[in-house]
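Form 12-C: Joint structure prediction
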Amino acid sequence: MDRDALLAGLRARQPAALARAISVVENGRAGFEPLLSALHPNLGQAHRIGITGPPGAGKSTLTERLVAAFRAQGHTVAVIAVDPTSPFSGGALLGDRIRMESIALDPGVFIRSMATRGSLGGLATSTREVCDVLDAAGFDRILVETVGVGQSELAVSRMADTSLLLLVPESGDGIQTLKSGIMEIADLFVVNKADRPGADKLRQEIEITLGIRRGNAFRHVPAHHGFTARTKAETAALADRADGEWKHPVLATIAAKGEGVDAVVEALDAHRTWLEASGTMRERRRRRLEERTHEVVDRALVRWVWDETAAAQAIRERLDDLEAGQVSPYELAGTILDALKQGARP
Amino acid sequence: MDRDALLAGLRARQPAALARAISVVENGRAGFEPLLSALHPNLGQAHRIGITGPPGAGKSTLTERLVAAFRAQGHTVAVIAVDPTSPFSGGALLGDRIRMESIALDPGVFIRSMATRGSLGGLATSTREVCDVLDAAGFDRILVETVGVGQSELAVSRMADTSLLLLVPESGDGIQTLKSGIMEIADLFVVNKADRPGADKLRQEIEITLGIRRGNAFRHVPAHHGFTARTKAETAALADRADGEWKHPVLATIAAKGEGVDAVVEALDAHRTWLEASGTMRERRRRRLEERTHEVVDRALVRWVWDETAAAQAIRERLDDLEAGQVSPYELAGTILDALKQGARP
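Section 2 - Result
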């Protein structure tokens, strides 16, 4: 399949073209950057939603419910499940993919898992690039689900238009999470398994912390007591404040039973409306474009230095001297860098 | 303190000089690379031991016991506790530092925690550099304790002379760990909490997998039944096979009671003896020197491009075009890279 055929197939959302384009991008195969480059003018239609949280919070269950809700509204949905974890946890942290089977056969749904191969940084970049492919293919919603360990929350917040942080009462992460600055990167908080003890307390803690952060600790909106979905009117009110700051919703769900999921969908939509109206969407997209270009330069630079210049050879030639302590890695790196700065070629 | 005074203080293991040198290196402050460069000829005396495993395996407890055992032998010991995890887990995954209090006041012991700030790759590099400082300061043993999530196992195996993987029966990681290739990076396996159910089974699984890997599945050494420390003679026999492959010990401990810890110390020493005698130590150190130089070049390259050239400005100037889809991040990165390759200056 040549690139024009691939692009045409992708825009028509043909499964074979989609699978091939993602595979090319994910694995950095020959021509992946020109492909992404060709997609660039078509981006920006999808709402990119990041879902993160600790292991066992119910991310896969909520994701499945959100997919069903979006589908019921007539939207196409792509799901990327990112596992930045080690072999210790296996796939377990991301939940059982089989639970997605209710949506797996729907042609309007696309599901893909991505695992860490090289660095986490590399994973984040290639996840963003796969999102671009899905965006160009016309998916209305892209859900990126990632387990909350390592730098994944930060990586998610940088790839998503809207970041949802999922917590559970029993994880005991409440206070620690609030203190840690992780709050800063979430646009939307959801307390799942809200029928369990401690759910109200966790919601209150989040609300209070949000209040303190806004500098109005004494005027914060009290958390709902018991399991109470935010009303449509309440959620709509959030989007109306397009001129002001985004008021972070703190919602409650019992994802396994589907309870509270509609309110999450509404809050996600409200956030997107706010993003657009407030100019924040444009700002975030511009920042992402800037960051992406940085990343591509970094990646290309490293590839150039090690694949096309004499740098690797220069290190091998001095290995005996390095071992004998006659030159340090820092001195040798300095020499190599000086040569590169002069425009050294192979 | 100028560099010569710092170096002199460091070699005398003065606490103030040590703290200052580590701080300079860990935070990448001005002059950190020349400092590391000056230390380079003095490296290679310490035995660098990595200890990794899943949360709750008892890494801190074992570490504390190992420190006490090394101290009883008259060795100085440095401990670096690396937390590559997110705010979700807080410091909890690495265990309570307070448990180290029995050793914290011993002037022959140095303990330092390091947390993820930037990328995990960056953490791994700076951990290795802090190890260099401790090595140059004359510590006989450097223990690097890291929780088994993310890419940390791999990072540990690359920084340590000897990698110890700590497992526990109840973690249920047995089979998954064995399948996952994580085995490949450990030199020594320890089943902790060996008085709990499943300890024998886990040890057997490890032994069998090791046997299969060696291609002699039918001749593998059977696991000990019940809690039985490997005898001194058995451990010594391992080191004798300097001409052959390293036979990975699979030990059992109850670290909380100190049981089996001496055998772990013996196996660690035996592994170092084997490393030296077999030439593997030299090979590993050479590979590490090569990798380190690569990393330093990469780091310096990125710093150069973004701090000293016009690359960042070039992106900012084209941000409107990026947003309008008139140029893609890939095309723009290509232009910037071409300029850099020609030896473009600020």
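Section 3 - Comments
Chain A touches chain B through 75 residues (CB under 8 Å). The first strand of chain A starts at residue 47 and ends at 53.
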